[in-house]
Design goal:
This protein is mainly beta. It has two domains: 8-84; 85-433, Methylamine Dehydrogenase, Chain H (7 Propeller), CATH 2.130.10.10. The chain is 11% helix and 40% strand. It is built from three helices and 32 strands. The strands form eight sheets. The protein has a four-stranded antiparallel β-sheet, with no helix packed on it. The longest helix is centred in the first third of the chain and has 19 residues, at 33-51. It is globular, with a radius of gyration of 26 Å. The two termini are 29 Å apart.
């Protein structure tokens, strides 16, 4: 099968280039020296002319332009780093179980958070650490990149949930510095979602509140606080509505950026609602509850358009729509959205805890409790295509669906602490990060 990835020699060259672009701690590199020598020669010539009383205004203008603008005309990989002292070129081991994993939108970076509170960001091409920090003594519950890839937001759960503050840390990946600490939640941050406008961040907390943050002013406001624990957020495809799964057997939909309620779906089951998901066209919202109740809502009228009974559905902790919106995954079961008929079953007897469709919609990734690796399944007939392991959840899929990152197994099971990056179609191991 033909691979879309570069050869080893090409990858080596790219690694060198990436290292030069992103991870240099030397102010000027070879390549900028000729220009520097040229500037020095001009300075010397100007001094000589000045001493001789023959200074030329035209020559002075040229020299001034050269000295002020020379660095801007260097190739990108030869420009000095704006923050040379903030770069961390050495690798740091992943300690503790990985609890959050994410690719940047441009697929150049991978971020991981652990149960010990560490946040680490690697360059995919070079495998080197871009950022490593432990800002808070608690479990990293969620990691999200902004759409432009500049910011990384991390949420935490404190070691003790006795109304402990649970800040959100916002990292600037250009300067590789902590840009802001957003305070407001208690007892843990459950989920984070960046808005499509590029300057809004939504957060859900275990204190039952949903907050909307302005990244320009670094201020936030509470838009909902009446639902016990908020588990998950889901942004509509148009970015105008936000769905929230709550533990009081309800789900809510909010209008953005105002945060005003659009719909309150109460009494959805006998137990808490764990997960919500929008269809790709935004016309359907799916809600899944702990008692395995699944409902599909028409978002134009907010009426139930389909309900799947508990005895037909196994384990609604996961909801994922296929890219065409025709198929819905509820863990091990795949359903026809239009008819409510079960199409196939994946995962065997394993309890699926994370699932995601590939961009083409023909295959999907899943990880279950009984698995020792992330598995790729064919949607049409439930056939197992590849197994990426050993590994555990969470896993992360690149935006184009060509790369997969898997977390290492539980430290109690294995001493292997590598985050692995795979080529999707061939299951070839591309990198092991630690």
């Amino acid at each position: 099968m033909r691979s879309d990835y570069p050869s080893d020699s090409q990858r080596t060259l790219r690694k060198r280039g990436d290292g030069a672009r992103r991870e240099s701690i030397t102010p000027y590199r070879e390549g900028s020296k000729p220009r520097t020598k040229f500037v020095l020669c001009l300075v010397a010539g100007l001094v000589v002319l000045a001493l001789c009383g023959l200074e030329s205004p035209r020559l002075h203008t040229l020299l001034t332009y050269r000295s002020h603008h020379a660095p801007r005309h260097l190739p990108a990989h030869q420009r000095p780093s704006p923050h040379p002292r903030q770069v961390t070129p050495t690798q740091a081991p992943v300690r503790g179980q990985v609890t959050a994993l994410s690719f940047s939108p441009d697929e150049r970076l991978i971020a991981a958070g652990t149960e010990l509170g560490t946040v680490t960001v690697w360059s995919v091409l070079s495998g080197r650490v871009v950022l490593s920090a432990k800002p808070y003594p608690g479990l990293v519950s969620v990691l999200r990149f902004s759409l432009d890839g500049r910011y990384l937001a991390s949420g935490v759960w404190p070691e003790e949930e006795d109304n402990r503050p649970s800040p959100i840390f916002l990292w600037d990946l250009r300067s590789r510095q902590l840009a802001a600490v957003l305070r407001g939640h208690l007892n843990g941050v459950s989920d984070l979602v960046f808005g499509l406008d590029g300057h809004t961040l939504m957060s859900a907390g275990r204190d039952g509140s949903v907050r909307v943050w302005n990244l320009f002013t670094r201020t936030g406001r509470t838009v909902s606080s009446e639902h016990g624990i908020c588990y998950q957020l889901a942004l509509s495809p148009d970015g105008r509505r936000l769905a929230v799964a709550c533990n009081d057997t309800s789900a809510i939909a909010l209008r953005l950026p105002s945060g005003k309620p659009v719909a309150a779906m109460k009494g959805l089951s006998q137990e808490e609602v764990w997960t919500v998901a929008w269809s790709p066209d935004g016309r359907t919202l799916a809600t899944g509850a702990r008692d395995y109740t699944l409902r599909l809502w028409d978002t134009r009228t907010w009426r139930t358009c389909r309900r799947i009974h508990a005895e037909e559905c196994k384990g609604v902790e996961v909801l994922a729509f296929s890219p065409d919106g025709r198929t819905l995954c509820t863990g091990s079961d795949l359903w026809d959205v239009r008819t409510g008929r079960r199409l196939s079953r994946v995962g065997g007897r394993s309890w699926i805890l994370q699932a995601q469709f590939l961009p083409d919609g023909r295959d999907m990734l899943a990880w279950g409790r009984m698995d020792r690796g992330v598995r790729l399944w064919q949607v049409r007939n439930g056939k197992l295509l590849h197994e990426f392991g050993p590994g555990s959840m969470p896993f992360a899929l690149s935006v184009d669906g060509k790369m997969l990152a898997t977390a290492p197994e539980d430290p109690e099971i294995s001493s292997d602490d590598h985050i692995r990056v795979w080529e999707m179609r061939t299951a070839k191991l591309l990198a092991a990060l630690s």
